[in-house]
Amino acid sequence: MSQDERLLQWTQEVSTHMGHMSRPQAVVLALWSYGMVMTRCCGLTTVAGFLCLLHGKKFETVRQRLREWCYDGQDKRGKQRQTVQVQSCFAPLLRWILKRWTSAIPRLAIALDATHLRQDFIVLAVCVVYNQSSLPVAWVIVRSEQKGSWKVHWETLLATLQAVIPAEWQVLVLADSGLYAKWLYDDIVAYGWHPYLRLSGQGYFRPLAGQCWRSLRAACRQGGSVRRWQAVCFKTQSAQLPCTLLAWWDSQHDDPWLIVTDIPPQQAQVAWYGLRAYIEVGFKYTKRGGWHWEQTKMKDPLRAERLWFVMAVATLYLLSLDATASLLAFPALPPSLSLFRRGWLYNLVLHLLGQPIPHRSFLPHPWPDDLPFILQP
């Protein structure tokens, strides 16, 4: 299979899953994401250089075509140029992933977090956790100096995705203590999902049937077993949260895991919170561990959001190859290689051998088993 055939195949796949986009938008998205995958770089000049060599076109022509994909419509050349509305792409992107999701148990772990780029941007991202990694499916980028609450951003991102996930799926929404808020917990429950939100350890809780308030940090002891409580967290009336409180304090860490969820104590697994850490792996892919976004010269957050969409599609391309590789009887690669790097190597070998990609899929690992626990009254 030639490079042109591969690109045509990828363009068709992108166009199929991004059917709401205009044909020119989908074609450029396929071109840019394909160029990113082949060069392992999101830099405009590098990707344009690769594509101009591949197709024998003028460098400046290719470069301008890619650049304008990130522009607002009024800033583009021509009278019928349209703005790429990134928010309208989040639901199709998640639907694309779920269509390829192969799991005996219908469940999904979603992580929320913020990542910084120098003093320029803060990215608020919603990512699907996948095999010690993550795939971005919704985000908003704000300037680092921008003041104000992030509440409206998180609510909008979650609402955009809610209709895509089948109602019968078990969905965990994981976030670290920096994002905990009662409204976030309530919003997640209202969607039929399950919050797994970490508390900072400041404040108090009491058993649901009790009257005595205790320090949250006293919910477990360092080096002890997992404890599970039916509890009310926080004394202040407006902040009180009836919930399941999971508490575990590893002997090697200074602070405990204090997780609030709506899953009953007998069913909730504190080890599931460990899935949240894999959003950090996904953030690494956007920067030095993958696409090298840390080198961007962009200053406009809306343009950066569109570039992030290209990176998200390119990440989907690579991470979907790990399950596909098993169909091709490739030798097993060591787990020390990241999922991103394995996908890139599989893609490189397939190109050198001239072989097609038979099927893109996601085969999630089982969620981690729980630690020994004590069920508290």
Describe, in plain words, how this protein is organized in 3D.
By secondary structure, the chain is α+β, with helices and mostly antiparallel strands. The longest helix has 19 residues, at 301-319. It is globular, with a radius of gyration of 22 Å. The protein has a domain at 89-280. The chain has helices at residues 3-17, 23-39, 44-55, 59-69, 90-99, 151-162, 182-190, 278-286, 301-319, 321-325, 339-353, and strands at residues 107-117, 121-129, 134-143, 170-175, 194-198, 204-207, 214-215, 226-233, 241-248, 257-261, 373-375. The chain has 11 helices and 11 strands. Strands 1, 2, 3, 4, 5, 6, 7, 8, 9, 10 and 11 form an 11-stranded mixed sheet that branches.
In brief:
With about 375 residues, this protein is α+β, with helices and mostly antiparallel strands. Helices cover about 35% and strands about 20% of the residues.
Write the layout of secondary structure elements.
Layout: H1 3-17, H2 23-39, H3 44-55, H4 59-69, H5 90-99, E1 107-117, E2 121-129, E3 134-143, H6 151-162, E4 170-175, H7 182-190, E5 194-198, E6 204-207, E7 214-215, E8 226-233, E9 241-248, E10 257-261, H8 278-286, H9 301-319, H10 321-325, H11 339-353, E11 373-375
Parallel strand pairs: 1-4, 4-5, 8-11
Antiparallel strand pairs: 1-2, 2-3, 5-10, 6-7, 6-8, 8-9, 9-10
